[in-house]
Amino acid sequence: MILTEKTTTVDENYLWEQYAFTKDIKIRNQIIEKYSYLVKIIALKLRGVYQQYGDVEDIVNEGIIALIDVIDKFDLSKNIKFETYATIRIRGSIIDYVRKQDWIPRKVKNDFKTVKEAQDELTFKLGREPEDKEVASHLKLDMYEYNNIVRNAHGTAMLSFEELLSETNLRELETSSGYELPEQELETKELYEILKDSINKLNEKEKLVVSLYYKEELKLKDIAEILNISNSRISQIHTSALQKLEHGIRQYMYDKK
């Protein structure tokens, strides 16, 4: 028998209908096995958010728990693609897990603000972007302390940005009858346009880093090598870009209220 897309869809619907009726664990396990790839994809994409607060195994376990919960709560009659619904819920659960780890975002944010102010001051004074060691020296920090501040601030910015996207996607999902773009990070054309407009307002270096990180899926250390700048500087550029993008999305959400 040759399986067509229509046949596959019918089989999937039958599987969901059987589970909804019987709640058979064996059927649920089949569904988990079919969609576990989503957890791995999401864990990989969110590596920048959690890599300093948890390891991959913990994140994947959290994602599988979320997947099981999503399967139990999924309503086939809502006319929403399961992949779309599951992706948003799994991302949200992973972000919530990371948010609950033992760290102090306010201190991290204040420390990074101090670093950024020092960098701006030195840029004006020197007529060029200062090197990391010059910023550290200006703040009377050793390089370990300096790099730690930049690294923590980057994690904070990524977490805040991903958390906002997750909240926005979920809100849009709950007020929609379904989506046609489950493969996209953003699930609505309107929100996608807002993000696109925000990216266009970034400076050229920020645009390049965002493109290489999200579109080409390069690691920050690889981007640093390509641009011939330090890992700390790449983290600063990425953090600054995320903060600007987050501002654009928050403004969009505020205007919709």
TrEMBL record:
<dbReference type="InterPro" id="IPR013325">
    <property type="entry name" value="RNA_pol_sigma_r2"/>
</dbReference>
<keyword id="KW-0966">Cell projection</keyword>
<dbReference type="InterPro" id="IPR007624">
    <property type="entry name" value="RNA_pol_sigma70_r3"/>
</dbReference>
<keyword id="KW-0804">Transcription</keyword>
<keyword id="KW-0238">DNA-binding</keyword>
<dbReference type="InterPro" id="IPR013324">
    <property type="entry name" value="RNA_pol_sigma_r3/r4-like"/>
</dbReference>
<dbReference type="Pfam" id="PF04542">
    <property type="entry name" value="Sigma70_r2"/>
</dbReference>
<keyword id="KW-0282">Flagellum</keyword>
<keyword id="KW-0969">Cilium</keyword>
<feature type="domain" description="RNA polymerase sigma-70 region 4">
    <location>
        <begin position="199"/>
        <end position="245"/>
    </location>
</feature>
<dbReference type="InterPro" id="IPR014284">
    <property type="entry name" value="RNA_pol_sigma-70_dom"/>
</dbReference>
<keyword id="KW-0805">Transcription regulation</keyword>
<dbReference type="GO" id="GO:0016987">
    <property type="term" value="F:sigma factor activity"/>
</dbReference>
<dbReference type="GO" id="GO:0003899">
    <property type="term" value="F:DNA-directed RNA polymerase activity"/>
</dbReference>
<dbReference type="Pfam" id="PF04539">
    <property type="entry name" value="Sigma70_r3"/>
</dbReference>
<dbReference type="InterPro" id="IPR000943">
    <property type="entry name" value="RNA_pol_sigma70"/>
</dbReference>
<dbReference type="InterPro" id="IPR012845">
    <property type="entry name" value="RNA_pol_sigma_FliA_WhiG"/>
</dbReference>
<feature type="domain" description="RNA polymerase sigma-70 region 2">
    <location>
        <begin position="32"/>
        <end position="103"/>
    </location>
</feature>
<dbReference type="GO" id="GO:0003677">
    <property type="term" value="F:DNA binding"/>
</dbReference>
<dbReference type="InterPro" id="IPR007630">
    <property type="entry name" value="RNA_pol_sigma70_r4"/>
</dbReference>
<dbReference type="GO" id="GO:0006352">
    <property type="term" value="P:DNA-templated transcription initiation"/>
</dbReference>
<protein>
    <submittedName>
        <fullName>RNA polymerase sigma factor for flagellar operon FliA</fullName>
    </submittedName>
</protein>
<dbReference type="Pfam" id="PF04545">
    <property type="entry name" value="Sigma70_r4"/>
</dbReference>
<feature type="domain" description="RNA polymerase sigma-70 region 3">
    <location>
        <begin position="115"/>
        <end position="184"/>
    </location>
</feature>
<dbReference type="InterPro" id="IPR007627">
    <property type="entry name" value="RNA_pol_sigma70_r2"/>
</dbReference>
<keyword id="KW-0731">Sigma factor</keyword>
